[in-house]
Each structure stands twice: as C-alpha cells, then as structure tokens.
C-alpha cells in the first residue's frame, strides 16, 4: 500500500555503515545513494513505489552504490534516470555490476544514464528543489585521479557529490557524502553557501581522509560552522570504526551547543548520553534501557524540518 505519510519528506535509511536517503514529494520519488544490499528496494516496496524519477549516486564507493544494481535489475521498478560522475579508478566488482545493470536497464526500459553530477545540476521538482554544491564543473573535467590547484590528486571521496534538498528557505538537508578538506577550501575560496537545516555528516562521523584526530576535529568544526545546521545526522554502524568519533562530536558541539545529533545506529557508549544530554535528546528512551534509533524521517514544512523515527507505513 502507498505510504500515507504527509509529503514532502526525506528518509535516511538504516543501512549500517553506508548511506542511503530517499525523497518522497508531490512529484514522486528520488533516491540518493543506496548503501549495500536491498535496504532501498525493501523501503520502496513497503511504500508502494513503482517508479523512481531519479537516482543520484554521490560517488562509486560500495557503501554508497552497493544496492543500486538491485534496483536497476528489479523488473517491478522503473528508474527513469541515474546521475553519477565517472570514476576510472574503480575496478571493483560492485562498480562493474552497476555498469552492467545500467546498460541492461537502459536497453530494457530506457533508463537514462547521465554521467554528470556537478554544480550545474539543478532539479526543480513539485515539492522540493535539488542542488549539487560539489564538485564544480571545472573540477569534474579532470575527474578522479586528476590534480587540484594545490597539486593534490582527486580521489573518489574528494570528488563526492554534495547534494542539498530544500523545500522553502527554512527547510533543507545537506547530503555531504564523503567530502574532505579540499571541498571546504573550495567553498571558502568561492564564497559558497552550503547552509542547511540538517547535515548528514560525511564519512559517517569518521575520519575525513586523515588518521589525525586533531585534523578530524578541525574538519568537524569547519563544516559545521559553514553549514550551520540545527540537526546533524550520522548514517553509521554502531560498532564500525567507532563512528561517530568523539572528537567529531565534540568539535560540532563547540560550534553550537544547541545542535541535536541523530544516529541511525547509536553506539553503546552513547546510550547514557541519550538519556541525559540535550545534544542527544532526539534519542531519548521511550522506556528504560531502550533508546530510539533506526531510519530517520525528515519532514519538510514551512517552519523548518521535523525529525521522527521509523519507516512510514
């Protein structure tokens, strides 16, 4: 049965260590990354979606595209268009499967393949606006493996597409994929404005292309200062890599002590904080020893974004 939940809303699915978000608005459905496995397929089936207008894949890492081939090969689901940037560095089985599935879907049902997801991508929908804030067109020309102005090689992560989904001036979500310091530097140099009500934090709350904790904290502080969110979401696995990292959490809180955190999976070490710390009040237990976690629904409305838990029925 189709979902009766009021639209528009964006749901950040619980895919463990990975990223997958889905926009449902008056114009239909858009998928942003797929995580691994069949999480997105199960969600779409549960809410009765038979057509996806667009699937935007931020970059070619398996934890962001692993479920895309499943969607494209599903004969009960029609995907109109897939947007992603080329990545000649990826020779993984997952990326090969995606390329095969794209070719098959294009031949079978006419799925359009758009190998460009850059700052010139702007989609006005009935209910929401989709903007790409990174990478710039000029940077995309060199692609993964090319060099930045500083001489640093572009990686799959540094070329991640950053996508902002908005419904009015006060309600927006920034999907930050796995960007690193160079993206922040570009925004500063170009006087970019990546502001959003909700930030889906890059690297699942982990290390942004560095093993240095001080650098990770600096990155957390800088991206939070630039985006100025009210809520920071971590799409994470509760035991992998210690995400979200304590140094990241502390750095974000230094920017604004009124920010609220939300994890798709809440690590055990944060359960006590969920019971007493206002930063984690969105996870406040509904009953003793039971914190709230799982898929995170972000409902757009005129005054901002309302956060709730669980998949719609």
Order of strands across the biggest sheet?
8-7-5-3-2-1-16-17
By CATH reckoning, the class would read Alpha Beta
The CATH topology, please?
Answer: Metallo-beta-lactamase, Chain A
Largest sheet: 8 strands, mixed
Topology pattern, helix = H, strand = E = EEEHEEHHEEHEEEHEEHEHEHEHEE
CATH superfamily: Ribonuclease Z/Hydroxyacylglutathione hydrolase-like
Molecular shape: globular
Mean pLDDT: 94
> What is the percentage of strand-forming residues?
15-25%
Annotation field: number of helices: 9
Structural class: alpha/beta
* Count of individual domains: 1
Roughly how many Å is the radius of gyration?
Answer: 18 Å
Level-2 CATH architecture? 4-Layer Sandwich
- As a percent range, the share of helical residues equals 25-40%
Poorly predicted runs are none
């Amino acid at each position: 049965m189709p979902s009766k939940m009021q639209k528009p809303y964006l749901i950040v699915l619980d895919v463990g260590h990975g990223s997958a978000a889905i926009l449902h608005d008056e114009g239909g459905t858009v998928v942003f990354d797929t995580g691994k496995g069949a999480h997105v397929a199960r969600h779409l089936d549960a809410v009765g979606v038979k057509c996806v207008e667009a699937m935007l894949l931020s970059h070619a890492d398996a934890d962001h595209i692993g479920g895309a081939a499943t969607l494209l090969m599903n004969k009960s689901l029609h995907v109109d268009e897939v947007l992603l940037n080329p990545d000649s560095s990826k020779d993984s089985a997952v990326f090969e499967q995606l390329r095969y599935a794209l070719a098959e879907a294009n031949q079978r049902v006419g799925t359009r393949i758009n190998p460009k997801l850059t700052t010139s991508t702007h989609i006005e929908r009935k209910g929401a606006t989709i903007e790409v804030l990174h990478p710039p067109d000029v940077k995309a020309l060199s692609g993964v493996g090319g060099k930045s102005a500083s001489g640093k090689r572009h990686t799959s992560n540094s070329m991640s597409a950053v996508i902002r989904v908005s419904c009015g001036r006060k309600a927006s979500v920034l999907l930050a994929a796995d960007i690193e310091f160079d993206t922040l530097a570009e925004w500063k140099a170009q006087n970019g404005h990546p502001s959003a009500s909700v930030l889906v934090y890059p690297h699942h709350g982990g290390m942004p292309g560095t093993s240095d904790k001080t650098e990770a904290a600096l990155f957390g502080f800088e991206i939070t200062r630039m985006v100025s969110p009210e809520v920071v979401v971590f799409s994470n696995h509760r035991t992998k890599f210690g995400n979200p990292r304590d140094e990241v959490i502390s750095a974000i809180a230094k920017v604004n002590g009124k920010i609220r955190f939300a994890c798709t999976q809440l690590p055990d070490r944060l359960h006590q904080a969920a019971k007493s710390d206002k930063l984690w009040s969105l996870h406040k237990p509904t009953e003793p020893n039971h914190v709230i976690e799982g898929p995170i629904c972000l409902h757009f409305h005129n005054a901002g974004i309302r956060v709730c838990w669980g998949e719609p029925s």
